[in-house]
Design brief:
alpha/beta; binds S-adenosylmethionine; single chain
Length: 164
């Protein structure tokens, strides 16, 4: 009975995070450094990962000297990400809803969500990002928006010229 209860709780948490943003599917490891190269992430940049999963990208961004902030709603994944980033300076792993993250100070924002959330991500970026900031959407494009540059991999890079 206890095991069934635990199983149902875990299933519920994964279901809620899947509905709220995306299910957990990790970005390909070999893409991580390439993606950070592509957006020219540099020391002192403020990097956000919306739905940071197991925290690999947050840690990799901080290792380049960025101030790296990850948001993760799934408490199990949050623990994994938090443990991964333990001891890595300039990392913050927030247990919270990515839709509530304040992106106004971000230089680079990365999100790996699903197509149905792209319009909401687009609106959030348009409202909150400063003109010099970049939004990176892994795998899924924002179909209504032109990319800032052609990326060399499975991600799409956007810039929001002015706040709306
Ligand atoms: C497709 S996975 C990507 C994981 C990670 N970014 C990577 O590339 O390896 C999407 C992640 O977003 C998380 N997520 C979904 N909805 C969320 C929400 N509302 N707030 C924060 N995280 C959320 C999921 O738990 C999952 O870890």
């Amino acid at each position: 009975m206890v095991f069934l209860g635990i199983f149902l709780l875990v299933a519920l948490i994964f279901m809620v995070t899947s509905i709220s943003g995306a299910p957990w599917v990790p970005a390909r490891s070999f893409d991580i450094e390439k993606l950070l190269d592509d957006v020219k992430l540099k020391k002192g940049d403020v990097f956000y990962e919306l739905g940071c999963g197991d925290g690999r990208l947050v840690k990799a961004a901080a290792a380049r000297g960025a101030q790296a902030i990850g948001y993760e709603l799934n408490p199990f994944l949050w623990v994994v990400a938090w443990l991964r980033c333990l001891g890595q300076p300039n990392t913050t792993v927030m247990l919270g809803d990515l839709w509530k993250a304040d992106l106004s100070k971000a230089d680079v924002v990365m999100a790996f969500l699903v197509p149905r959330t792209m319009p909401k991500l687009d609106r959030k970026a348009a409202t909150e990002l400063k003109p010099s900031a970049l939004l990176v959407s892994y795998i899924f494009p924002i179909v209504s928006k032109k990319t800032a540059h052609t990326s060399s991999g499975s991600w799409h890079v956007y810039r929001y010229a002015k706040k709306s």
